[in-house]
UniProtKB/TrEMBL annotation:
It is an enzyme of class 2 (transferase). Pfam families: CdaA_N, DAC. Residues 93-258 form the DAC domain. This is Diadenylate cyclase. It comes from Candidatus Mediterraneibacter caccavium.
Length: 287
């Protein structure tokens, strides 16, 4: 029986080449798989998906031109490739920058990057989180508009430069006073790093997402736009309704409760490498 099976395998595999697979080949395949997976996620979650669709359509058009030997079209396409590549880099510069920033957030890089070691003491305390929540809902009760950015891994230095430097400890009284009507600092956003307010009256990028509700004002569009270009948690207090909303990762959650906002702050309070020491709480509800 064994001899018959051996002859059967030899007959059907005769002349076939089976490469010798080594451990480095497996590691290389895994690395390429992860890279391709990350690229596909980036394409799916950004405007690059529209670019990919356009490239596919252009490729089909060029294939048809090649089949029917349309020499002029093929010549123009060959001459335009370099120009289109440079144009794509310019047009999608924000998305490419975001992709590189996401790469820098990975734990494998943070663990070997000596320049990130001083970031450990910049995670905010429970007192800071409670102060942010208290200030937001006290301002919401009297319909005082507010825009608060809580920094995470990505530095927001370029946005801090658009405002006024404060460098003061976070407290509910300070936040309420900043956003009080007719005060010099009430217009714009506040940026919080660790337990300190770094800047006020900061300008944030507005979202160009056409699917968001038309009744959203500039604060909400700025919060959503900021969450699209960085990993920060952006909190908005509506001046019209007093409702508290939060944006993170390009998603805006409107009308959240006090407990939900506190839960959001708890989930970003510690670095990813430290979260294993703490209980992972249930995610917040989206409306």
């Amino acid at each position: 029986m064994l001899g018959w099976m051996r002859n059967f395998i030899d007959n059907y595999t005769h002349g076939m080449y089976f490469p010798k697979i080594q451990i480095m080949d497996i590691i290389e395949i895994l690395i390429i798989t992860v890279i391709v997976y990350e690229i596909m996620l980036w394409i799916k979650n950004t405007k690059a998906w529209m670019l990919l669709r356009g490239i596919i359509m252009l490729g089909v058009f060029i294939l048809v031109a090649w089949i029917f030997q349309m020499h002029t079209i093929l010549f123009l396409a060959a001459q335009s490739i370099n120009v289109l590549a440079i144009a794509a880099v310019v047009v999608f510069q924000p998305e490419l920058r975001r992709a590189l920033e996401k790469l820098g957030e990975k734990n494998i890089l943070n663990s070997i990057n000596p320049f990130d070691k001083n970031r450990d003491n910049e995670r905010f305390s429970d007192e800071t989180a409670d102060s942010i929540v208290r200030a937001c809902y006290e301002m919401g009760s009297v319909c005082t508009g507010a825009l608060i950015v809580v920094e995470q891994a990505i530095r927001l230095n370029e946005y801090e430069m658009t405002g006024i430097e404060l460098d003061c400890k976070v407290s509910s009284q300070v936040l309420i006073n900043i956003f009080e009507h007719n005060t010099p600092l009430h217009d714009g956003a506040v940026i919080i790093r660790g337990d300190r307010i770094t800047s006020a009256t900061c300008y944030l990028p507005l979202s160009d997402n056409m699917s968001i509700s038309k009744d959203l004002g500039t604060r909400h569009r700025a919060a959503l736009g900021m969450s699209e270009v960085c990993d920060a948690l952006v909190i908005v207090v509506s001046e019209e309704t007093g409702l508290v909303s939060a944006a993170m990762g390009g998603r805006l959650t409107r009308g959240i409760k006090r407990e939900e906002l506190r839960e959001m702050l708890s989930q970003i309070q510690y670095r990813k490498s430290e979260q294993k020491r703490f209980t992972i709480r249930k995610g917040w509800r989206r409306r």
